[in-house]
Amino acid sequence: MLQDDTRIPMYAQLKATLLADITSGRYTAGSRIPAEPALCEAYGVSRITVRKAINELVEDGYLLKKQGKGTFVRRHVIDRKIEYVMGFTESLEKAGYRASSEVLERRTIPADKRLAEQLDVGCGDDVLYIQRLRKGDGMPVMLENNYFPADRFGFLEDADLTGSLYRLLSERHGIRPINPKTTTLSLALANADLAGRMHVVVGTPFFEIRTLICDQDDRPVHVGHQFYLGELYTFTL
Length: 237
Fold this sequence. Notes:
Layout: H1 10-23, H2 36-43, H3 47-59, E1 63-66, E2 70-73, E3 78-81, H4 88-94, E4 99-110, H5 113-119, E5 126-136, E6 139-149, H6 150-153, H7 165-173, E7 179-189, H8 192-198, E8 205-214, E9 220-229, E10 233-236
Parallel strand pairs: 3-10
Antiparallel strand pairs: 1-2, 4-5, 5-6, 6-9, 7-8, 8-9
């Protein structure tokens, strides 16, 4: 129980207690902590005290509030460069996650004017569109939409894409996607389609990134249009 006869404020004692429960594994990453009334009863404190302790743990990055669902222990944050030379699999492994991928779509489409300019192909030429659901420890964390020049990357139509695409390109085909070009980062709220594919509620915040990636010879590899789950990612310049 907390002590009410010390010089340490009650909210600070509760914060320290909850933090100890998180670091010890009593509350595991992704799990929901007890609701405010339950914490008030368990520790004999007011709701104001509970709320202040929780808010500080949210600000410190240990907890995450989800509207209508409760407060959860935050998973490991995945840090990426905005111009992402590091592949998805590598970035997840570095953050301590087990990476996996599920191919949702794989089809040939005609290049519109913008894709043709970016990929250095003719307008109407074949482009291979691949959409994958990228996961960390089995949880969807990113929806990936990539567009490849079909004449050069037609081999991807039958390739196993459940693992790292960049490793496959580098190790089997000598193509190293190491040169990011103009990259834009914006915030987006999940619409019904994105929410359904990512298994989240409509309105969930995402980072939206558009970019062109070239290889070691500065030849276009793919145009990317990706959606990263906001609660799990930070981006650095």
